Amino acid sequence: MNTTTLTTSITIPKMDLSLLKDLAKKFGWTINNTSSKKSGLEEALNDAKTDNIFHANSAKDLIEKILQTT
Q1: Which of 33, 53, 55, 66 is most buried, by the most CB atoms less than 10 A from its CB?
Q2: CA distance linking residue 67 with residue 55, whole number of Å
Q3: How far apart are CA 39 and CA 14, in angstroms?
Q4: Range of the domain at 18
Q5: Domain total of the chain
């Protein structure tokens, strides 16, 4: 049997990755993860672009916010 293959790209939520892997396994497909993790600088620049920045009113406010996230 002569099989023609197709390489394609899809974007899915991370929470659906296990479902996709199960489906690929059942059909005998191959998944190649080509996504790369963003560097800290890229994430910071993206946060600045989307205005996802915390503005502290005082040093005490900043310390309280830091202690909440750790």
Answers
A1: 66
A2: 15
A3: 18
A4: 14-69
A5: 1
Q: Is the pTM of this model over 0.85?
A: no
Plot region of 43 (φ>0 → left; ψ -120 to 50 → alpha; else → beta): alpha
- Low-confidence stretches of the chain (pLDDT < 50) are none
pLDDT of residue 9: 84
**Residues 11, 14: Cα–Cα separation, whole Å:** 9
Contact present, 55 and 48 (Cβ < 8 Å):
no
Task: State the pLDDT at residue 70.
Answer: 63
Cβ pair 24, 30 in contact under 8 A: yes
Q: Is residue 6 part of a domain?
A: no
